[in-house]
């Protein structure tokens, strides 16, 4: 046993000390970060950290050539004779002398345009050279905060994991990941296996640094970088960019490198700013030093995102391949000032891998066993980029206090602060937590469910719930009671629920509920309570029509197989009609003709109900199929990411039975097909197609008929692909067959971006069409054209649509205003 331990010690220490290490500075002795360091004629190496320090794991003694490369500085090839390890090598790098040559200056054509055209023409040729490969991937994520606020909207923000100093500044997130990746160009496939993952101050060690997320590929027409951006070497790049040759220089192998400045034609287009470096004759990317603003990626809280990429020449495939990348960001919003970096390094490329038939599956990410349990010795050996002093300190502090922070004494002290009862708690709500035993008790407050309708008048709810977490793998249960009271109809409607979830893999969940509640006549719930409250009180428009339901219900849902979701429910209910009990509004009595009745079939009939009181049971069984669903397998959960190449299919069967009047029983089949298609630089196409039919046409209750989601609001908050823009509520219903279709294409900047002056506004053109068919009615159709991305500066959430409708020879039109975040 001692011999084995001794041999293991020798192996570890020899690995640690078999290194070339040092510090990289400029000519003024300022440290240089993100410098690529590797052996000459290879693509395997390391990267310097923020302090300019580097460690290159290497064990072969003798004469070697070490290469130091970074954009903006002359590449240095240093010949060394290594006689022992560790070997220290400190270097200074000189700034690159980028200048225009006489040929570039004298040419009539813009030389930058010629270079970019050649790059575009040779994209497939260059990427085919590394059409498949395996590699080792290292990523480090770092978030810092400066002058963090102590409270936000009255809530104490805490110390962000213990990494803040006296000014409430410091590291709030630090993580590292080492993984093995596999790539194939045609058909495009990607697979990642994480062999080590670490998060400062956390036990599970699961970081969100994924190699596929870091795969920012300029050779693609559309580059996913916060948003789908137009690549500077996209096939239609000249519609978005102007180019300027800033200068040329020669790399370590004598290759001529062109530095091309990217000049966006429109300030806030989905494009990059900065420079891209191109290898002459090879017409391949040598490097990139670019940025995007929050307005360009449509993420208002972001000030700017910076991206740097370094490529190296591989003799084995005669190609330039990515070896390092860094993403820096700055966020300044709501009093929070963040900045950070995600840096990546690629090594140990194999461009001739032998893939088996089952190498690539829908499982695109896996974790090696105990990948999150590696110790500091293992990381010291594995880590290709050394930690900075600040990062070392963060690991030491947070790893030392994480044990303390799991203790009962500490958690009780935290809860003591969190559990203080404020004066506003009866209105806003209150939660009492016991973090050590993993339970909480909540009171939901009067404000959360406050609203108004003409049946109940002003109404609100009081509720209590208890939540218990059984483990960290998704097992929990939740139970509660709620009571809604209407101040006009003076009715108290209590309900209860019990929910249990067993795991985060297939996510089986069961809910038992019951009580008395109100429900919309259209069970697709087209009218939001907030919309109805505002329109009733300010415009005297009471679109919401409801009835009372006393019920007992059980629900169950689970992903029974990857991409196949099952849900089922069984309910027994007693349904009662309701009538208006109030005429109150802030608006005048005759505005918009006054309030209508609560009868959706006859809005002028305030005496007769739309249905007779009855009892009925409802069985609902449904399945959702996400074809080719890709997913990530974490140690404690499964995370589904879908597959935008295929549509999502939903099928559903509803049986209503046991009614007090047998004529009310029915059988209904429904199906829907939905997909969002990324058209790259030409925008996004979305469609939603639905259909349904009753097994037998019967005189069933109104709320059980198939109804389309209408809209009579100028500023609806629902999603545009679920409802019609100008269709009157409750006008279209059937007990026979129906179908509806919604299609929409957001062209982003593909059309308006090419129109002079208008392109300065950076609006996005949106076109859409909707149609509705019912067996006993004439078709209804809508066409729309709109502008999205409306706003000021980075804040662009508004969308305006002009809609025109056609039905039975009647035409109608109108404007709709939406917030893009709800679409």
Describe how the helices and strands are arranged.
Elements: H1 2-17, E1 19-26, E2 36-39, E3 45-47, E4 53-57, E5 62-69, E6 76-82, E7 87-88, E8 91-93, H2 102-106, H3 111-121, H4 123-128, E9 132-145, E10 151-152, E11 155-156, E12 170-184, E13 189-199, E14 222-224, E15 228-230, E16 241-250, E17 256-264, E18 273-279, E19 284-293, H5 294-297, E20 302-314, E21 319-333, E22 336-350, E23 363-367, H6 376-382, H7 389-401, H8 408-418, H9 425-428, E24 430-434, E25 439-443, E26 451-453, E27 457-469, E28 476-486, E29 491-501, E30 509-520, H10 529-539, E31 546-561, E32 564-576, E33 614-626, E34 630-634, E35 637-642, E36 648-657, E37 666-678, E38 684-694, E39 706-707, E40 733-734, E41 737-746, E42 764-774, E43 777-792, E44 795-807, E45 810-819
Parallel strand pairs: 1-7, 1-8, 13-23, 23-34
Antiparallel strand pairs: 1-4, 2-3, 2-5, 5-6, 9-12, 9-22, 10-11, 12-13, 14-15, 16-17, 17-18, 18-19, 19-20, 20-21, 21-22, 24-25, 25-27, 26-27, 27-28, 28-29, 29-30, 30-31, 31-32, 32-33, 33-36, 34-35, 36-37, 37-38, 38-41, 39-40, 41-42, 42-43, 43-44, 44-45
Short description:
This protein is mainly β and 823 residues long.
């Amino acid at each position: 046993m001692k011999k084995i331990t001794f041999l293991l010690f020798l192996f570890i220490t020899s690995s640690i000390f078999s290194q070339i290490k040092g510090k990289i500075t400029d000519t003024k002795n300022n440290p240089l970060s993100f410098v690529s360091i590797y052996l000459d004629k290879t693509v395997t190496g390391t990267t310097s950290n923020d302090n300019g320090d580097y460690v290159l794991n290497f064990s072969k003694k003798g004469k070697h050539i070490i290469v130091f490369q970074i954009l903006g500085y002359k590449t240095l090839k240093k010949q060394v004779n290594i006689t022992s390890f560790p070997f220290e090598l400190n270097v200074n790098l000189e700034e690159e002398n980028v200048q225009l040559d006489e040929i570039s200056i004298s040419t009539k054509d813009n030389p930058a345009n010629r270079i970019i055209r050649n790059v575009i023409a040779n994209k497939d040729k260059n990427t085919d050279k590394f059409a498949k490969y395996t590699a080792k991937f290292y990523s480090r994520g770092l978030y810092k905060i400066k002058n963090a606020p102590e409270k936000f909207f009255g809530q104490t923000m805490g110390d962000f994991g213990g990494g803040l100093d006296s000014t409430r500044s410091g590291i709030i997130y630090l993580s590292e990941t080492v993984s093995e990746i596999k790539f194939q160009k045609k058909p495009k496939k990607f697979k990642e296996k994480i062999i080590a993952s670490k998060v400062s101050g956390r036990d599970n060690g699961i970081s969100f640094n994924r190699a596929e997320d870091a795969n920012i590929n300029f050779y693609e027409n559309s580059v996913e970088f916060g948003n789908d951006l137009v690549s500077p070497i996209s096939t239609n790049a000249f519609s978005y960019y102007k180019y300027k040759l800033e200068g040329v220089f020669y790399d370590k192998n004598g290759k001529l490198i062109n530095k091309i400045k990217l000049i966006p034609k429109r300030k806030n287009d989905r494009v990059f700013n900065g420079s891209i470096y191109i290898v002459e004759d090879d017409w391949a990317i040598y490097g990139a030093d670019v940025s995007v603003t929050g307005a360009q990626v449509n993420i208002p809280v972001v000030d700017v995102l910076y991206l740097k990429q370094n490529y190296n020449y591989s003799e084995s495939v005669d190609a330039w391949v990515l070896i390092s990348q860094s993403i820096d960001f700055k966020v300044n919003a709501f009093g929070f000032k963040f900045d950070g970096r995600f840096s990546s390094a690629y090594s140990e490329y194999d461009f001739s891998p032998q893939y088996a038939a089952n190498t690539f599956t829908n499982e695109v990410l896996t974790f090696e066993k105990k990948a999150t349990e590696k110790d500091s010795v293992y990381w010291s050996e594995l880590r290709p980029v050394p930690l900075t002093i600040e990062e070392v300190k963060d690991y030491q502090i947070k790893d030392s206090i994480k044990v303390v922070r799991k203790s009962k004494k500490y958690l009780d002290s935290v809860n003591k602060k969190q559990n203080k009862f404020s004066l506003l708690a009866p209105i806003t709500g209150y939660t009492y937590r016991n973090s050590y035993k993993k339970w909480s008790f909540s009171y939901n407050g009067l404000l959360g469910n406050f609203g108004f309708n003409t049946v109940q008048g002003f109404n609100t709810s009081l509720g209590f719930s208890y939540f218990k977490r059984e483990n960290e793998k998704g097992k929990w249960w939740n139970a509660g009671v709620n009571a809604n009271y209407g101040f006009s109809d003076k009715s108290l409607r209590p309900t209860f629920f019990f929910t249990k979830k067993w795991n985060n893999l297939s996510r089986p969940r069961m809910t038992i509920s019951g009580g008395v509640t109100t429900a919309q006549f259209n069970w697709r719930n087209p009218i939001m309570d907030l919309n109805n409250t505002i329109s009733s009180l300010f415009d005297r428009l009471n679109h919401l029509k409801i009835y009372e339901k006393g019920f007992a219900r059980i629900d169950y849902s689970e992903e029974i197989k990857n991409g196949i979701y099952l849900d089922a429910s069984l309910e027994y209910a007693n349904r009662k009609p309701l009538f208006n009990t109030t005429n109150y509004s802030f608006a005048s009595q005759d505005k918009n003709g006054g309030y209508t009745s609560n009868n959706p079939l006859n809005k002028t009939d305030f005496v007769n109900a739309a249905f007779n009181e009855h009892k009925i049971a409802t069985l609902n069984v449904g399945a959702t199929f996400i074809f080719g669903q890709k997913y990530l397998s974490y140690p404690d959960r499964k995370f589904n990411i879908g597959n935008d190449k295929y549509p999502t299919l939903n099928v559903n069967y509803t049986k209503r039975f046991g009614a007090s009047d047998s004529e009310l029983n029915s059988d209904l089949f429904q199906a829907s097909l939905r997909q969002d298609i990324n058209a790259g630089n030409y925008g996004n196409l979305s469609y939603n197609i639905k259909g349904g039919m009753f097994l037998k046409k019967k005189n069933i209750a109104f709320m059980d008929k198939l109804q389309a989601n209408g809209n009579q609001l100028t500023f609806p908050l629902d999603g545009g692909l679920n409802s019609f823009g100008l269709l009157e509520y409750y006008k279209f219903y059937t007990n026979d067959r129906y179908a509806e279709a919604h299609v929409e294409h957001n062209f982003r900047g593909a059309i308006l971006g090419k129109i002079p002056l208008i392109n300065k506004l950076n609006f996005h053109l949106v076109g859409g069409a909707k149609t509705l068919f019912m067996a006993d009615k004439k078709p209804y159709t809508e066409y729309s054209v709109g502008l999205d991305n409306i706003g000021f500066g980075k804040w662009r959430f508004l969308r305006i649509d002009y809609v025109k409708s056609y039905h039975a020879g009647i035409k109608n039109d109108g404007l709709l205003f939406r917030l893009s975040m709800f679409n």
